[in-house]
Amino acid sequence: MSVRVQSEPFDAGAELNAFSMGAEGAGAVVSFTGIVRDIAGGLDVMEIEHYPGMTEKAISGIVAQAQQRWDLADVLVIHRYGALHANDQIMMVATASRHRVAAFEAAEFLMDYLKSRAPFWKKEHTKDGADWVDATDADEKALDRW
Amino acid sequence: MIDVLYFAWVRERIGEPKETVETSAVTVLDLVNELRAREERYALAFSDLSALRVAVDQELTEFDAPLAGAREVAFFPPMTGG
Question: Where exactly are the transmembrane stretches of this chain (chain A) (predicted)?
Fold first, then answer.
């Protein structure tokens, strides 16, 4: 398992290749990459704040839950913080398992939990000002299926 | 003595990211009520607890959680990771 919380950009393609090569015995690798969207138009900066210390613990806890539920050969989570811009890669998740169902399901589980249980907060800066992004009911409801 | 941390708009409303508080609060809610009584900016930040989340020693918990032995309490809005 590898969990990285960093401000620097990462190369999702290179990360995925290295992850796949290292996942011994895996017959399936699934990955998800999150990209900063300019939803309203005119996004200057997407500021991502986090809780150093708790962030790493919370993500590792979520990964441990996934490993209990599914037979996973390996898991990778990278999440950035700091000042990002539209189209920047903000985070990625990769899961490796013997069969694809576990890899797909675990990746979705990780994404659902990272969204509302990992201590990150997004603030959108546009020319009109800055607003914190609200969590949605859908984010919270997404946890019910697990 | 307990470290109290604030994140996102809670941090902005309180005006600082972290402070050390002398308190005899038994639960998180007791601490919130002590802070509310201090100054208007705290009362504003803590006006609607349903809009807030709390972590004690970096574990998510509820407002009725005990503070015995806790070193760090953090208040923040619902998280928006991913």
Answer: none
Residues 46-75 of B with CB under 8 A from A: 55, 58-60, 74
> Looking at the domain assignment, is residue A136 inside a domain?
no
Q: Could you tell me the two tokens for B23?
A: 């308190």
Note down the domain range covering A74.
Answer: 2-129
Q: How far apart are alpha carbons A78 and A15 in whole angstroms? A: 9
- Distance (Å, rounded) from C-alpha A32 to C-alpha A66? 15
- Please indicate, yes or no, if residue A43 is contained in any of the structural domains: yes
Query: Choosing among A51, A57, A123, which should be mutated to test the B contact, i.e. which has the most B CBs within 10 A?
Result: A51
For every residue of A40-96, DSSP letters joined together read SS-EEEEEEEE-TTHHHHHHHHHHHHHHHHS-EEEEEEEEE-EEE-TT-EEEEEEEE
ipTM score assigned to the predicted complex: 0.95
Domain total of chain A: 1
Written as six digits, the tokens of A59 are 């993500």
- Say if domain B2-76 classifies as CATH 3.10.20.30: yes
Q: Enumerate the β-bridge partners of residue A46.
A: A84, A124
Q: What is the CATH number of the domain that holds A24?
A: 3.90.1170.40
What is the per-residue pLDDT across A85-97, written as a single tens digit (0 to 9) for each? 999 999 999 999 9
Residue A73 lies in a domain: yes
> Do residue A115 and residue B81 have CB atoms under 8 angstroms apart?
yes
